[in-house]
Amino acid sequence: MKETTRTILLITALFSLTQSSPVEKKLMPNFKLSGFAQGTTYQVSYFAQDSLVTGSDVDLILAGIDSSLSLYKSYSTISRFNSSPSGSKIDDHFKKVFLKSAEVTRHTGGLFDITVQPLVQAWGFGSAKAAVVPDSASIKSTLKCVGAEKVKLNNNILFKSLPCVKIDMNGIAQGYSVDVIADFLQSKNINDFMVELGGEIRVEGRKATGGLFTIGIETPDDSHNAGRPLQRILKIKAGAITTSGNYRNYHASGAKRFSHIINPKTGFPEESELISVTVHAPDAITADAYDNALMLMGVEKALAFVEATDDLAAYFIYRKRDGTIADTACAKFEKLLNQQ
Fold first, then answer.
1. 67-121 per-position pLDDT tens digit
2. How does DSSP assign 46-105, residue by residue?
3. pLDDT tens-digit profile of 120-172?
4. Cβ atoms 234, 86 nearer than 8 A
């Protein structure tokens, strides 16, 4: 799992709006957990008669996922695969994320591809910084190590066709982590909760008063300061909200800025007019997997894609040709913005 701050924090769980009033406490206490994991923070807010889940429970879950998917743990399953010449045995966390990744890769025509790791590293967004900006020749060479067809799962062993093939699951793993926490809450018969990890959010049920949980979409800027004004506010009954954007995590070379969102088909950072994409889906692993792919499509294609895809809705912030910033959303997302 990525051990640096989430590349973009456009969406904010408005936990201040879920604070328990005296009336709420009589109905159902609101338990709040928070901590630090995967290079970022997490918050869990749930309503139950008793404290059924603790911060230690959440920490243990996230540590287990890190042991599988963290590129920053030398002993992790993903690190063992990446250092192997032909492949290695994988665990349940890895297998679930790999299978979901393969599904999204097929659906997006390869715009989402976890074998992108060599390109991520080449552009300096991996565990080690790149010394120079790669040129076309080096990218062409690196692309030989990239492609979903270069990995094959057989039972619990993932094989690679070339030793240079490596995997990066940072584009989906935090969403998966949110879902694992949500599933754990539900296993304890907790059905009213909000889970947030690094800006990825999963919601189920309602607050004790019957109101919906509230999520804010922040106005993008180049600042790292908290407290930016909210672009939109939405209330959702269930599902996940994740976001991806290009204005926070980038490298600069002279006047040129290179986004961390790499197109696995071309080998180069995305250069669409999109600034950010916020996605709603039934679960966080799905929303998290699609938000980067939508960034690579551009506004027009991305809008058509989500309209044609069941259970996906999206909101876009983009830069117009005259340099001004605008926003738009698919019809399904507009319904979320108007939901009470």
1. 999 999 999 999 999 999 999 999 999 999 999 999 999 999 999 999 999 999 9
2. EE-SS--S-HHHHHHHHHHHHHHH-TT-TTSHHHHHHHSSSEEE--HHHHHHHHHHHHHH
3. 999 888 766 666 778 899 999 999 999 999 999 999 999 999 999 999 999 99
4. no
Structure tokens given for 130 = 């790149």
- Residues present in the chain in total: 340
The per-residue pLDDT for 17 is: 42
Token pair for 167? 């995997």
Gyration radius of the chain's alpha carbons: 20
Which residues on neighbouring strands pair with residue 35, listed in sequence order? Answer: 42
Quote the mean pLDDT of the chain. 86
Closest CA to 203 of 331, 11, 8, 41: 11
Distance from C-alpha of 215 to C-alpha of 203, rounded to nearest angstrom: 10
Residue 280 CB neighbour total at 10 angstroms: 27
| DSSP string across 195-222 | EEETTEEEEES--TTSPPEEEEEEPP-S
**Strand 193-197 with 256-259, pairing:** unpaired
CA dist., res. 334 & res. 234, Å (int)? 9
Determine the Cα–Cα distance for residues 309 and 38; give it in Å rounded to an integer: 30
- 186, 144 Cβ separation under 8 angstroms: no
- With beta carbons less than 8 A apart as the criterion, state whether 74 and 83 touch: no
State the pLDDT confidence band at 7, using cuts at 50, 70 and 90. Answer: very low
Phi-psi region of 267 (alpha: psi -120 to 50; beta: other; left: phi over 0): left
Q: Which residues of 214-251 are buried (b: 16+ CB within 10 A; e: fewer)?
A: bbbbbebeeeeeeebeebbebbbeebbbbbbbbbbbbb
For the whole model, what pTM was predicted?
A: 0.88
Which residues, in sequence order, are CB contacts of 51 under 8 Å at separation 6+? 31
